[in-house]
């Protein structure tokens, strides 16, 4: 695992997700499509996962970062705060999917609201052009 990007929070807020991630995404696309040349030939690579703390992961994915008052506070499922507080604390709501994420983004664009199902905006393009990977896809490789 290697650190590939570091940015001050104030710069991140000023420039926005798309600008901050654009160079990284270009480099990752180049690595995936063309690879790097070595003595043994071309070696290709790909982004496998995005790792971060809870707040950072919510920020990157475009989810609500207000865990104490947001009605939908989980980036993995769609359990509401009301359901969570009145049911078994180990309960989960319906799993978030790329389709449910896109539906929330579509509603955000169509309606004059700040948040839909805990989604504030479309992610910074991390997986925008890739139907195989999405911020709401959970890897089952190690489960």
Average pLDDT, rounded to a whole number, is 83
Please state the overall shape, judged from the principal axes of the Cα atoms: elongated
User: End-to-end distance, in Å?
Assistant: 19 Å
Radius of gyration: 17 Å
Helix content: 25-40%
Number of helices: 5
Relative strand content: under 5%
The count of β-strands is: 2
Number of domains: 1
- Element string (H = helix, E = strand): HHEEHHH
Which sequence of strands runs across the widest sheet?
1-2
Structural class of the secondary structure composition?
mainly alpha
Contiguous uncertain segments of 5+ residues: none
Main pleated sheet: 2 strands, antiparallel
Task: Lay out the secondary structure.
Elements: H1 9-15, H2 17-33, E1 36-38, E2 41-43, H3 54-61, H4 81-86, H5 98-110
Helix pairs in contact: 1-2
For the structure shown, list the relevant keywords.
143 residues; mainly alpha; two-stranded antiparallel ribbon; 2 strands; 4% strand; elongated
């Amino acid at each position: 695992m290697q650190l590939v990007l570091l940015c001050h929070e104030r710069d991140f807020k000023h420039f926005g997700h798309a600008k901050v991630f654009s160079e990284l995404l270009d480099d990752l696309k180049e690595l995936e499509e063309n690879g790097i040349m070595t003595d043994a030939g071309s070696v290709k690579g790909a982004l496998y996962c995005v790792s971060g703390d809870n707040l950072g992961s919510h920020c990157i994915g475009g989810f609500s970062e207000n865990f104490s008052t947001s009605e939908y506070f989980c980036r993995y499922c769609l359990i509401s705060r009301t359901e969570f507080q009145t049911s078994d604390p180990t309960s989960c709501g319906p799993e978030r999917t790329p389709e449910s994420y896109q539906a929330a983004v579509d509603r955000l664009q169509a309606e004059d609201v700040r948040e839909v199902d805990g989604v504030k905006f479309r992610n910074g393009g991390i997986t925008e052009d890739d139907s195989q990977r999405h911020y709401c896809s959970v890897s089952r490789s190690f489960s």
